[in-house]
Prior knowledge:
Elements: H1 11-22, H2 31-43, E1 47-51, H3 54-64, E2 72-75, H4 82-89, E3 93-96, H5 108-120, E4 127-131, H6 140-149, E5 153-157, E6 165-166, E7 169-170, E8 179-183, E9 196-200, H7 203-213, E10 217-218, E11 235-236, H8 247-257, H9 260-277, E12 283-284, E13 292-293, E14 299-303, H10 308-317, H11 346-354, E15 355-358, H12 366-380
Parallel strand pairs: 2-3, 2-4, 4-5, 5-8
Antiparallel strand pairs: 1-9, 6-7, 6-13, 8-9, 10-11, 12-14, 14-15
Helix pairs in contact: 1-8, 2-8, 3-4, 3-7
The chain binds pyridoxal-5'-phosphate.
Residues 53-55, 79-80, 82-83, 131, 157, 159-160, 183, 185, 196 line the site of pyridoxal-5'-phosphate.
Amino acid sequence: MIPYGKHLVDEDDIDAVVDVLRNQFLTQGTVVPQFEQALCEYTKAKHCVAVNSATSGLHVACLAAGVVAGDSVWTVPNSFVASANCALYCGASIDFVDIDPDTRNIDIDALEQKLLNAANLNRLPKALILVHFSGLSCDMQAIHRLTQVYSIVLIEDAAHGLGGSYQQSKIGSCVYSDMTVLSFHPVKSITSAEGGAVLTNQSQLHEKLKLFAKHGVTKDASQYQGESHGPWYYQQIELGYNYRLSDMQAALGLSQLKKLDVFIQKRSELAKVYDKELADLPLKLPIVQTQSQSAWHLYMVELTQHQRLDVYQQLHNKGVGVNVHYIPIHLQPFYQQFGFKQGDFPVSEHFYQNALTLPLFPSLTATEQTKVIDTLHQVLL
Ligand SMILES: *Cc1c(COP(=O)(O)O)cnc(C)c1O
């Protein structure tokens, strides 16, 4: 079975992890700061806090944004549940903005309208969490303009986005946002097994992110109440969590980061082959955006004439492991208690009905890709 996504770990990645195992520190050593520094250099963001998953990263980003009980956070239904759960972890409520059918990212007109209504009712969200779906950047400049008007904290869930760019900047630069969250889960652009990071250009947010990800504990005397008792001293000044990444994971991430541009190049070449070879099929293919370069986390097609379940099963029977992204979050059973129902976000629901994720990863061979393309032709024509 050809999977929809797969990590690519080489001998140099393995050596980097083994080096850590032979050294003094498995965690809280020097490799995590090196990884953070390298992520800053790559994205041009000023600050980075590595964490043990994007889910943890989204949680501390919400905490740093000041999201508390009684607040509301908005995101899109077309994402993994973590994009919404982080608001609930903070005791806030969640609401959604539907997606644009072509970019499959947040619908900016719908966002503008919803903000206008919310402003009239005095129910503006504290934070907006954007998803660069499939690796294609949202129109950050347009969204930033709106969130500035209403003083809303803008958080990018860039779990799909590392290696992609928007205008002249890499996703993660935080040029138009307050914070950007990355994931290093094995199916994402690069992996640290489990892992994530939060990027920001604001030193105040950076301090908060570090605190919330590390027990709310500080060793910075300037933040103390009262005097230090001595060199061993620390103070807990917030309720934080242990969301640290280990040095073993950071070593893998750091080694992978060196290959990120090669991975993205490979993904982008494979995507171009799909664009060309699938053009004759009854499918809606991903759009090409001129102001951004996708990280090509996912290559998603929409069926226009066929039943998705039927096509999915036929492809799996023939060894092509397509997948589906995403079951709209508002339709999950857990989310029904908040009053969401079928029909609330019709574009996300329609996309989900017809979507298929084709195999796309840096080590996908030409032979494998040809098999995917040929099998799609057999099934759809
Ligand atoms: C993968 C993913 C996450 C969660 O990432 P983890 O590192 O596994 O916690 C969050 N949001 C989106 C959009 C994702 O694709």
